[in-house]
Design goal:
Layout (H helix, E strand, L loop, with lengths): L1 E5 L2 H11 L8 H9 L7 E7 L2 E8 L22 H7 L10 E9 L8 H15 L4 E7 L5 H10 L6 E10 L2 H8 L1 H9 L2 E5 L5 H12 L25 E5 L2 E10 L5 E9 L8 H17 L4 E7 L3 H11 L5 E11 L3
Parallel strand pairs: 4-5, 10-11
Antiparallel strand pairs: 1-2, 2-3, 3-4, 5-12, 6-11, 6-12, 7-8, 8-9, 9-10
Helix pairs in contact: 1-2, 6-9
The structure holds coenzyme A (COA).
Coenzyme A binds next to strand 4, helix 4 and helix 5.
């Protein structure tokens, strides 16, 4: 009654549309790409039919390589989110073999759930991935995912390792900057009196770039991951939404903004303050400042997303204490992995 098969070039042309509803809108273009390429370098899509009706889909990314040592976005593959740009910025000779794939989505028709189809889709996708040279599967999901429990259990019964927290995110509309300007008036005034200021990367001249690079170059070893000029920061900075933080004329930190996966969303994944201004509020004021810029450029309703890696407890505390009152949602993202034997 059920048939499971890879969606390949032969029939995907006519079938792709029917399977689109079994994955997220932003991934649908990949589904078409899976059909164009039957080579090992393409995406993998596996469909399940109930009679003639599509009833489920598992979709995997193109193969990708583990980023070189020290890369910031180590667990995120190219092709679907902000890690994209980082991959293209990397030099090819530094790239190890492309032996990883990401499980992008797996979905079964509500009426056909709990009859083993999810497991069979994953088993079939896994076999195809293994044949194509994949040695590790990776999946990233959010604590806000509706079917979180079902998905996590499905991965567990399919032999995946338990999910590990990857990063904490917090999102709010850019209009929050205006509210905070009002709420934080006294605090912002005190900071201004101490010399707080910001400059967008767009407005920096050569001398200021040289200054910023010098500061970044002198970062202590433990803070190297925050070097905004590293090719491994994992994002492509937007000059209008990336700022340096100043104390009088000196550069004492930065916040790097980049485009998010959703329309009208902007991500601030890199925020750094030198020890001399830590705990003085420079980052909080900088975050407000950059979102005010975002509101002007992209509208008060555009989304500002702040992200921090799981290990960065200082940044997380800052987000929870200072920014959460203005947020629309927060979540944690988890990464799960499964090793495939050749
Ligand atoms: C996650 C999903 C694909 C599972 O598909 P499925 O065909 O129902 O999965 P299976 O029948 O193969 O289930 C295999 C095992 O996973 C676990 N599982 C599946 N659904 C579960 C649920 N709702 N609650 C708890 N465990 C669940 C069980 O251990 C199950 O085995 P069992 O039925 O013998 O107890 C399906 O629930 C779905 O399409 N959800 C919505 C889409 C989605 O959010 N997908 C994940 C992110 S892309």
């Amino acid at each position: 009654m059920f048939r499971i098969a890879p969606l390949t070039a032969g029939f995907l042309g006519r079938a792709a549309g029917e399977f689109e509803s079994f994955t997220y809108p932003r991934l649908r273009p990949l589904l078409a790409r899976a059909g164009q390429s039957t080579s090992a370098a393409g995406c993998i899509a596996v469909g399940v039919w109930m009679g003639e009706q599509p009833a489920g889909l598992a979709l995997y990314s193109e193969p990708w390589a583990l980023p070189p040592e020290g890369a910031a976005a180590a667990s995120l593959p190219p092709g679907i989110d902000s890690a994209d740009a980082a991959d293209s910025a990397r030099s090819p000779e530094a790239t190890p073999p492309k032996d990883r794939r990401r499980l992008l989505s797996v979905m079964v028709h509500p009426l056909a759930r709990r009859s083993g189809l999810g497991m069979r889709l994953l088993a079939s996708g896994e076999a195809l991935a293994r044949e194509s040279g994949t040695r590790r599967l990776v999946a990233v999901h959010s604590s806000r995912m509706q079917a979180r429990q079902a998905f996590e259990r499905l991965l567990a019964v399919c032999g995946w390792r338990p999910p590990q927290e990857l990063e904490f995110r917090l999102a709010g509309r850019a209009a929050w900057a205006e509210r905070a300007k009002h709420d934080w008036a006294g605090f912002l005034q005190r900071l201004a009196d101490r010399g707080f200021g910001t400059t967008s990367w767009r407005d920096m001249d050569d001398a200021e770039w040289a200054k910023a690079r010098r500061v970044a170059h002198e970062l202590p070893e433990a803070d190297r991951a925050f070097d905004p000029f590293s090719r491994n920061i994992g994002v492509t900075p937007l000059a209008d939404l990336s700022i340096v933080l100043r104390r009088e004329e000196r550069i004492v930190g930065w916040i790097v903004g980049s485009r998010g996966a959703l329309a009208d969303s902007f991500h601030y994944s890199q925020g750094y303050a030198l020890p001399e201004v830590r705990r003085l509020g420079w980052l909080a004021a900088g975050a407000r400042d950059v979102c005010e810029r975002q509101a002007k450029l992209h509208g008060a309703a555009s989304l500002s997303v702040f992200e921090t890696s799981q290990g960065n407890t200082a940044m997380r505390r800052f987000m929870e204490r200072q920014l959460e009152p203005y947020s629309e949602w927060t979540d944690s993202r988890y990464v799960s992995e499964k090793e495939l034997q050749p």
